[in-house]
C-alpha cells in the first residue's frame, strides 16, 4: 500500500503546483484573488 499513498501524495503536490501557477496567472492578469478564509 506504500506505493498507493506515494502516488496520491505526488498527485496532491501536482495539483498544488497547478493551483499556484493558476494563482500566479490570475495575478498576472490583474485579478485580485481572495480566498474565502481571508475575506473579512
Commentary on this structure:
With 40 residues, this protein is mainly alpha-helical. The chain has one domain (2-38). The protein is built from one helix and no strands. The radius of gyration is 15 Å and the shape is elongated. The model has no long low-confidence stretch (mean pLDDT 83).
Low-confidence stretches: none
Number of helices: 1
Oligomeric category: single chain
Major sheet size, sense and barrel closure: none
Structural class: mainly alpha
Percent of residues in beta strands: under 5%
Radius of gyration: 15 Å
How many E strands?
0
H/E series, N to C? H
Mean pLDDT comes to: 83
* Outline: elongated
How many angstroms separate the termini?
Answer: 42 Å
Number of spatially distinct domains: 1
Helix content: over 70%
